[in-house]
Write a structure and sequence with these properties.
The chain is an alpha+beta fold. The protein has helices at 57-70, 86-96, 110-114, 156-168, 176-180; strands spanning 2-5, 8-13, 26-29, 35-38, 45-51, 76-82, 102-105, 118-119, 131-135, 141-146. It has one domain (2-170): Glutaredoxin. The protein is globular, with a radius of gyration of 17 Å.
Length: 182
């Protein structure tokens, strides 16, 4: 896989994750320094947002836009993953009021490698490519967007449309009322 960085073709390292496949479990570092795992099966739908660097205008704008878009969802776990240093990310979260999503750091590049997003060369080497994944409660990738040119924004509307659909979807099975009427 590859993307372009300011028009220059740039290869990505790691395994490509496809729609319909099981979302890999990936280790990240929370802002308090503890490790956590994201991806895989979870009690809520997950929105994973890969951000190359919050120090750039496009990334910062995207983080703020997603933060506002996801606030209305109670049954959505939104995680923004970056490779910026943890002290900068803490300050950014506080300064910009990021409270609808959790900002985390991919310190070991575990997420980058497991999702095939590690930029392998150039001035963004060891950073994440810009991407978005929506993972359903069964741990399957329901939506994926890997932005072809790193300086472009994601398709927020398409992503949120999938989130809406998954969150409003009822699990199959029977209700108590259906059982009683048999």
């Amino acid at each position: 896989m590859q993307i372009t960085v300011h028009g220059t073709p740039t290869p990505l390292l790691g395994k490509e994750v496809k729609i319909g496949s099981e979302a890999p479990a990936a280790r990240i570092t929370k802002l308090d320094g503890t490790k956590n795992v994201i991806g895989m099966i979870a009690p809520t739908t997950q929105l994973l947002i890969a951000i190359p660097s919050l120090k750039t205008e496009v990334c910062s704008l995207g983080a703020k836009k997603f933060n506002d878009l996801v606030k209305k969802y109670k049954k959505l776990s939104t995680v923004m993953i970056t490779t910026d240093d943890i002290d900068f990310v803490k300050e950014y979260a506080a300064t910009e009021g990021i409270d609808g999503a959790e900002l985390v750091v991919d310190t070991d590049r575990n997420f980058a490698k497991k999702y095939g997003l590690l930029i392998s060369e150039g001035k963004l080497k060891d950073r994440l490519a810009r991407a978005v994944y929506v993972i359903d409660r069964d741990g399957l990738v329901a939506y994926k967007e890997l932005v072809p040119e790193v300086v472009d924004e994601v398709d927020y509307e398409a992503c949120i449309e999938v989130v809406d659909k998954l969150i409003s979807e009822k699990k199959t099975g029977h209700t108590h009322e259906e059982w009683m009427s048999v």
